[in-house]
Amino acid sequence: MKFTINRNQFIKKISNVQRAISTKTTIPILTGIKLELSQEGLTITGSDVDISIQTFISVSDADNELHIENTGAIVLPARFFNEIIKKLPGEQFTLNVVENNQTIIKSGKTEFTINGLDANSYPRLPEVESNEKLSISAEMLRQLVDETVFSASKQENRPILTGLHLKISAEKLLGVATDSHRLAQRIVKVNNQSDNDYDIVVPARSLKELEHCLIEDNSEIKISISENQILFEFQNTLFYSRLLEGNYPGTDRLIPTSSDTQLTFDAKSLLQSVERASLLSHASRNNVVRLAIDVNASKVTLYGNSPEVGTVEENLTTEALSGADLEISFNPDYLKEALQAFGDTKIEVEFTSALHPFTLKPSDNKENFIQLITPVRTF
Amino acid sequence: MAYQALYRVWRPQTFEDVTGQSAITQTLKNAVATDQVSHAYLFTGSRGTGKTSCAKILAKAVNCPQQQAGEPCNQCAICQAINAGSLNDVLEIDAASNNGVEQIRDIRDKVKYAPTQAEYKVYIIDEVHMLSTGAFNALLKTLEEPPAKVIFILATTEPQKIPATIISRTQRFDFRRIPTSDLIARMEFILKEKELDYDVKGVQLIAQAAQGGMRDALSMLDQALALDLQKLTLANALQVTGALDEQQLVAYFQAVFIKDAAKSLQNLHDIMNSGRSALRFCDSVIEVARDLLLTKSDPNLIDAAQSLVLPETLMQLQEQVTKQQLYTIITQVSQTQQDLKNADRPLIYLEVLTVQLVEAMQPAPAVEGTDTSADLQVKELQQKITSLQEQVTALQNDEVKETKPMASTTSKKVKPAPKNKAVHVDQVKINQILQQATRKALNQVQDCWPDLMSMLNVTQKAVMKVSKPVAASADGVIVAFDYAVWFERVMSNQEMMTMLKTNLDRLLQNDADVILVAAEDWPKIRQKFLQNHEMPIAAPDDPQEKQATSNLVEQAQNLFGTDLVEVKHD
Amino acid sequence: MTIVQEQPQITAELAKTITTQHVVHAYLFTGSNQAQVQRVGIWFMQALFCPHAKEGYPCLQCNFCQRIQNNDFPDVLTLATDKKSLGVDDIREAKRELEQTSVEASGRILLIKQAEKLTTSAANSLLKFLEDPVGKVTALLLTKSVIAVLPTIQSRVQILSLADSVDTNLQVDLQEKGYSDNDLTIIQQAHLEDELMANIAGDKFKQLKQVAQTWVQQLAHNPWQAFIAVSTTILPAVENRLQQQLLLSLMEWYFSQQLNQAVDDHVKLQWAKQITMAFLHAKQLWTANVSLQNSLEQLALQATNLSKRG
């Protein structure tokens, strides 16, 4: 195989692929980057088994200055290859695979000869049937990930909870993440021309990597789902992720359908109050704040304390207040992260009892975005 | 890969299903039914006896809304979520991978969150013996102040590694090994359910080899069935259990019993060449020896021990051995089992073992009476005692003779003996100290001894480690060394002696001298002093000596304290 | 010769479990020859994943088979170490990875080489996984000694033992290195295959064999000479720990021979037994990092005592 290509263009295209390549893999060939040349263009692949990213450089795009002499495939050690390309002197470089997977990279007056590996040993990317029937805007996908993934568990104890549960039925994509003490659920719209419903769990880490690849991208993203993999396609790039195995806990029944106390807040000012209260709760072993709601007096008070440092008490400004009196304690960090996900909006907070999870919803999007926080038992 | 191992498919889902632990399951059922569930349980017992299964059933039973007589329904959403491992309120934690303080603290912090769906939050901590000491302490805190509606179930195969403080805060259930008959019944039940034919002997063989573990039994059953999908045959059971076949075993024992080393080794090689594992070989030999022993003691015991009845040919062998020989066999085989753990190649260990077993069959040397060995030992000991007694008297006589001149010569020097090149014990000074010695003074020295030690540097400390103060008066302390070598070394180390004295004086706030003796000499020195004072011949230049009382015991009490006076034969 | 020819029984059994769909989630393969155990392990993985497998036997030619052979297959996670032990962190990472779906094949495999190297905590942290893996995972543990594996692990896996058989690959390799047929016989009978993975030349083997044999005889006839020979003959002959290992294994073989040949003479047998026990003790000391010189000299001193009494 032999081709010449514009160096800067090449560096730009492989930056996403590099994300997938890990140095600490038990499978030696995965420390490599795979280049596969056809008459149509150059396909570049990187993978750490968990995620695989593939990008295509088309011969028809003149910016690429891609000239193909003969086709073929090779795997090159990613770390060196990357550094070499970055430091080459010329505008263009030529890559030529000679005998025994030896690869010559030429640019200007420089010539590197690198030992490559047989491309046949490289893992086959999964065959995910790309039916082009499922798609979502990049903007929507980013929102979905941003607003839910922080609730996923960071502990390995229950691996299934380290993922985002995705359910697709008709034009609705529902994403849920929970670490079993709080939960975030978001529903967004997808274009679904198929009749299929899907129910999968995608590792949170994969989605965060995907987000990085999607920065400044506003195209429509095609999604394909197979038994073992999910594939996102955008701008000549394929992003594959494995799924998590196991049964995701049934979260539907966790979300209360009725409530006894209802409050409405401005998310931003509530966030500031919680941040103040948590200054002291962080200093105590418990990290708990207490919320006291007195409906008749229209008084909602947030208490934080640390036995060593002192106490804080703040009367919260509510936009609306109804239902029964209540005292409830919870971890302020959960509320903080939940409020951060809402951004600048009005939210409705609904309680059933001091021992039951309470919910938070943005007033303007109650149906599609809900967060749930489990209270702490103080008696 | 869709096949599920039998032990996973047939895992008990109700207390009723649990095999061989009826006492425990009944208790747990009652506790659930009468709403008297404890907040912490400890399930212990060897592998495959149902600890984790019971823990899960208990988690279901306490949370199942349709619980009946303490049993979960296994139908409702809660039960099914627990079975699928997807209920957030029932947490199975593997203590081996989460054994640090951090992880247990995390549990402690998260315990406060109210259960989301179920009534009780249940923490099942498996392999709990793997927790670090710090983690145990963190767990202790939680067990001490259990939040309401939280149940901890700790499970382990190694209860001896669990701190007593943890055990005392839990209700402990010891799961016993499942009786062979129960294992057989369960396997037969499963085989019938699967509509498979089976050879009863094969089932028995597997039950025997499983050693009370249901999982072991079902694992082996699975493996045997993989060889023949239609039927459990004896041959396949033999193969998967690696059990020795009767003939091999009989041949081996016969050869050993007739003390034919060549033939025994040949039989051993035959057995090993037929692909039996060394471990299984040892197990079988022990089993046979045990059964022979039981038969010899009382044939009824065999049934009680749930053992398989030995084949006729083996039973007949019992005539050829004594109980003593069987004990020896068992001891030696178990020793070899230990050694095998570190062996690269087991065969040579088994060869040595075989020779040992053949030897064990030799009649004991010097056959006179029945209990020859014990008799011999007694005689030997008696002789030793006589000769020791002689030695002691001889020594005492020597010393008495010796001390007189020594005492008189050294007594001329009134000041403490300077350190001579030759190290010798300053008997005069010792006598002086002993004259004045009180238990109180010794207690004082002993109290500040650790402080003194901490003032020394590492090497000095190492040397002094083998020493301890044995007597003290206001103007002197006697320190005995376990090893004469160290004693001499310290004696000749002027710097160290000064160091000891000054520091000790600072601690005691007096001007006591430090006198060193070797611990082995100390009893003699002490005795000498007492004797000298009983018959007042010694050093006349010490006036206080006259006050010496002739009552030895009184003086001894004065010296060493009443709590120490006790006649010891050392 | 292929592994199927060398180990016809175990491969046939495994092929059968595949065709009858009775593959369980956890296996332990054991045998005295580690290289052979590994080859059976790889063969089994190929059999599980080969798309062209016939009656449970893999084709060994296709791209899948080739990549499994070369450890380039993404659905096989291998745990192996050159260090003394496999720790709990290695297991933790592996478990995280195995919770995810497969990439190419229909399931995933966790391969643990030298399972006897698992630390107690590592082994304990595997228990839950071995009992209830999530998804289609098969665990495959390889070891030379079942006894060295935690009993609670043993009860969760199906244990398959390799029959003793000639390792033809090794034999060809050794013949090329100048080993005589006689040497090969000893290697096979004494199970020295593991020791010889360390690339020891034929001449060196001959020398060590000679040293071992002579010394074992000296110990019987002239223990004092044997004592001196430790520093004059033995130490100059061994260059590294691997050769020490081989030397001790050869000695073990000669002690075993001596024991078996002494069966007809009661006095000789008694002596052979005692010296063999003393040797096994010395070898354990060596394993516990006592130097070769100290271990063997102590053995020689013990021999002088034994011969005095005997």
Shape of chain B: flat
Please summarize the sheet with the most strands of chain B: 5 strands, parallel
- Please give the oligomerization state of what you see: heterotrimer
Low-confidence stretches of chain B: 366-371, 402-422, 535-543, 545-550, 564-570
CATH hierarchy, class of the largest domain in chain C: Alpha Beta
Characterise the protein shown here.
The complex is a heterotrimer of chains A (379), B (570) and C (310). With 379 residues, chain A is of the alpha+beta class. Chain A folds into three domains: 2-121, DNA Polymerase III, subunit A, domain 2 (DNA Polymerase III, Chain A, domain 2, Roll); 134-242, DNA Polymerase III, subunit A, domain 2 (DNA Polymerase III, Chain A, domain 2, Roll); 255-373, Proliferating Cell Nuclear Antigen, CATH 3.70.10.10. Chain A is built from six helices and 27 strands. In chain A, the strands form four sheets. Chain A has a nine-stranded antiparallel beta sheet. Chain A has a nine-stranded antiparallel beta sheet with strand order 15-11-12-13-27-26-25-19-23. In chain A, helix 3 crosses helix 4 (204-214). Chain A starts with a strand and ends in a 6-residue tail after the last strand. Chain B folds into four domains: 6-175, P-loop containing nucleotide triphosphate hydrolases (Rossmann fold); 180-241, Helicase, Ruva Protein, domain 3 (Orthogonal Bundle), CATH 1.10.8.60; 246-361, Zinc Finger, Delta Prime, domain 3, CATH 1.20.272.10; 411-564, GMP Synthetase, Chain A, domain 3 (2-Layer Sandwich). Chain B contains 26 helices and ten strands. The two termini of chain B are 70 Å apart. Chain C has 310 residues and is of the alpha/beta class. Chain C is built from 14 helices and five strands. Chain C has helices at 3-6, 8-19, 34-49, 63-69, 88-98, 120-131, 151-154, 168-176, 181-190, 202-221, 223-237, 241-261, 266-287, 292-309; strands at 26-30, 76-79, 108-112, 137-143, 158-161. The relative contact order of chain C is 0.10. The model of chain C has no long low-confidence stretch (mean pLDDT 88). Classes of the chains: A alpha+beta (379), B alpha/beta (570), C alpha/beta (310). Chains in contact: A-B, A-C, B-C. Chains B and C meet through helix 10, helix 13 and helix 18 of B and helix 2, helix 5, helix 6, helix 7 and strand 5 of C.
